[in-house]
Amino acid sequence: MKATSSRISAFKQTVRVREHQLLADEPVGEGGEDAGPSPQELLAGSLASCTAITMEMYAQRKGWDLGATEVTCEYTPPDRGCPTRFDLVLRLPDHLSDEQVARLKVIAAKCPVHRTLDGEVMFDERVERVTLTH
Question: Per the count of CB atoms within 10 A, which of 13, 37, 72, 125 is most buried?
Answer without folding.
Answer: 13
